[in-house]
């Protein structure tokens, strides 16, 4: 693995505030467990026209046999008649540390597609970042490594979604809440959270109180990106907008009360099988069949990421409609294979410019 090149070097590296580090240390699993639900919003233009959808789900999972949380965020739509979207699939530990995150953005313009994939994964005492940017037929790859000791107070896009739900439920943000985050071009920067207070918002036919959080990422000298997010009392997202953008995300209907999901095994109705020969073999066949069913069901329950990964793959497959499905599948999944040696043939790449549909880059 190589160290970050000069593109990521700075005279003064940003640091997280002590208040932010203390907040991360104070978050208990109980607080996080209260934030395990699905948000579903509609992306609308400033004129009120629906442009797309935005969904975030957080649930319990496991990563390399370690209990953690699976965060899946997906945004897709059409802006100025250009299909675009963003998806995040990540594993976040109980202490809100990012174990692995896959971030995919695309924008399909007439004649060619801009596509960016960023994979970050913890390996030993480093955080490894693999970035693949495809424009037309040109593909550029970069790999960066960051020592974990330099990332104290780091917050990924996935862990940011969890942190905002926790802050919204407690309806109070400590002063000087500054974390570390990556910008769109993988620069390590300061990410500050500020309380916006409460206001009234119309959701469906009801007027409700919502609590606001401002998140600002410093992208350079006098350059910042800012998002305003408002939440219901239980932590559900009610609206989200990037300052300066002509689109925003709104909740159209109040969600139902969050209830605890019970892990129940599916019940399969057994149909009688009539074998007139070798009843002992028939009995062994049935025993083995039930054993395999239980084993497969258990695996799927403990790996809910299967459905999210397949859903994202099918979405991009149907969007592009390639002639060679096998080659498309190979290219889609290959950049996230952490077993491959880092490709250092490209030392710099231009950040792909895509509409900030999901936000928080």
From TrEMBL:
Entry keyword Cell membrane: yes
UniProt xrefs under Pfam families: CATIP_N
Q: Which GO CC annotations does the UniProt entry carry?
A: cytoskeleton; nucleus; plasma membrane
Share an example GO biological-process annotation for this protein: actin filament polymerization
Q: Where is the Ciliogenesis-associated TTC17-interacting protein N-terminal domain?
A: 19-245
User: What domain of life does the UniProt record list for this protein's source?
Assistant: Eukaryota
Sorted alphabetically, the keyword list is: Cell membrane, Cilium biogenesis/degradation, Cytoplasm, Cytoskeleton, Membrane, Nucleus
Q: Please give the name of this protein.
A: Ciliogenesis-associated TTC17-interacting protein
Q: What is the lineage of its organism?
A: Eukaryota, Metazoa, Chordata, Craniata, Vertebrata
């Amino acid at each position: 693995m190589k160290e970050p090149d000069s593109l990521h070097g700075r005279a003064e590296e940003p640091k997280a505030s002590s208040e932010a580090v203390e907040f991360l240390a104070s978050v208990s699993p109980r607080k996080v467990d209260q934030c395990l639900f699905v948000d579903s919003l509609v992306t609308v233009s400033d004129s009120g026209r629906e442009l797309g959808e935005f969904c975030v789900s957080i649930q319990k999972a496991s990563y390399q046999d370690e209990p953690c949380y699976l965060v899946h965020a997906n945004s897709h739509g059409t802006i100025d008649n250009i299909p675009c979207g963003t998806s995040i699939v990540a594993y976040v530990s109980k202490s809100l540390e990012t174990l692995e995150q896959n971030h995919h953005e695309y924008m399909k313009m007439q004649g060619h597609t801009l596509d960016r994939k960023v994979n970050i994964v913890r390996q030993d005492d480093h955080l490894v970042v693999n970035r693949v940017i495809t424009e037309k037929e040109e593909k550029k790859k970069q790999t960066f490594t960051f020592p974990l000791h330099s990332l104290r107070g780091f917050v990924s896009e996935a862990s940011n979604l969890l942190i905002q739900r926790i802050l919204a439920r407690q309806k109070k943000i400590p002063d000087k809440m500054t974390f570390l985050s990556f910008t769109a071009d993988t620069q390590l920067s300061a990410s500050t959270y500020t309380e916006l207070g409460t206001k009234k918002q119309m959701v469906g036919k009801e007027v409700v109180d919502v609590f606001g959080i401002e998140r600002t990422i410093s992208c350079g000298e006098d350059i910042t990106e800012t998002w305003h997010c408002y939440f219901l009392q239980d932590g559900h997202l009610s609206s989200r907008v990037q300052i300066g953008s002509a689109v925003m995300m709104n909740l159209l209907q109040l969600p139902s009360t969050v209830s605890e999901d019970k892990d129940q095994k599916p019940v399969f109705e057994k149909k009688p099988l009539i074998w007139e020969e070798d009843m002992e073999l028939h009995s062994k066949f049935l025993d083995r069949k039930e054993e395999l069913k239980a084993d497969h069901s258990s695996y799927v329950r403990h790996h809910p990421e299967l459905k999210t990964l397949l859903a994202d793959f099918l979405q991009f497959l149907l969007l592009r409609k390639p002639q060679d499905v096998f080659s498309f599948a190979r290219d889609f999944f290959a950049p996230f294979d952490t077993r491959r040696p880092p490709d250092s043939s490209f030392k710099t790449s231009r950040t792909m410019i895509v509409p900030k549909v999901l936000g928080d880059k």
